Amino acid sequence: MIIYGVYIVSKSGGLIFNLDNNVPRIEHEKTFTYPLDLVLDYDSKKVSVSFNRKDGINVGHVLVAVNGMPVNGVTLDDGRDVRTTLESPENYPINLKFSRPKMTTNEKIFLASMFYPLFAIASQLSPEPKSSGIELLEADTFTLHCFQTLTGIKFIVISETGLNGIDLLLRKVYELYSDYVLKNPFYSLEMPIRCELFDNKLQELLAQVEKTGINYMAIPEDSFQPCTDGPPGSIAMEEAFYTGNFMADLVPEGITVSGNATTLWNFPRTDRLQARVSVFHFNRGTWEPTVFNVLTRDMCIAIFDKNSYWNQAWFQNLLNKEEIKEKCLITKDTVMVYNPFLLKLRADNIIGPPLSGRYKSRIIFEAFDVNDNRRPTSLCFEFTAQVERIRK
Q1: 0.70 cut: is pTM over it?
Q2: What start and end residues bound the annotated signal peptide (predicted)?
Q3: Which of 66, 319, 381, 384 could connect to 360 by a Cys-Cys bridge, CB 3.0–4.6 Å?
């Protein structure tokens, strides 16, 4: 588990704290012949690429070594001038190593000030009333997690992709902020945080999190069962889909899936299909809600998004993807044909208190018309399983 950085943005949009925890160093090394086909910019502090790109070396990358010798500003370790060395034909072929530059403090302040209006715009554009704004932003190489307090302070964590439970980490950072910053008599609100004890406690927390992410396996008891207390108007799986040719068998490793299922419920293709997953823990005879909840606003997009869990775990195994793209899952008589696969009920790198015992996942599918009004009929079903920790 890798946490790249932690940032705190004040309610007025200013960056008041940043910590680079584990920033990956991206380097590209290549041997060049004369003349050099990269245009370089020489200033007093660095040599950087200003034009052209080649083999992963892009505009903005900084020269860090020449023939294995480190570059300090615009000179080599032996005192030679970099520009003179690169412009001399007798030095070729020459090996150059470039690296993506680290963000400066000014660049971090600029990005934080840009995130503030984007967050506000997202809150206003959201069709959900009293939207909490941007909570998760996923990219190919990182994920941004944001938690805003009631007073408007934003806590941001940048992590590697595919991690679960970062919301718990954000709240723990908030607790440290409350204990070691707000209670510091020498700290003034909205000012940059310069509290050594807070820095130390935060680094201890990140070190602990990176070492203690836990992997879990769910041993299923049953699957696709009707909800015991679903929303009004909800129907069971058998009422929404014909499953006579669909097979889902429980095995120790998970659920084996094969065959095909046909849609019975019928909504216009213009409707938006929303999915909501909630996890409950069985404790002393009652099902108690947990912090694990996932909302997917548009399933017709998510099932074909290769980065989404829905696609990776289930819908990538469809054999008739083009038909599903056209009709989605809400048009009557749509047939979903599956290539046989094993659904592994496993979750990795979970942060937070240890999980054990009996859990159930409640999955609700709801359709919304073009005016974003909820249809009266929804699909609700549940999975029940015993959760066990996987020893690393």
Answers
A1: no
A2: none
A3: 384
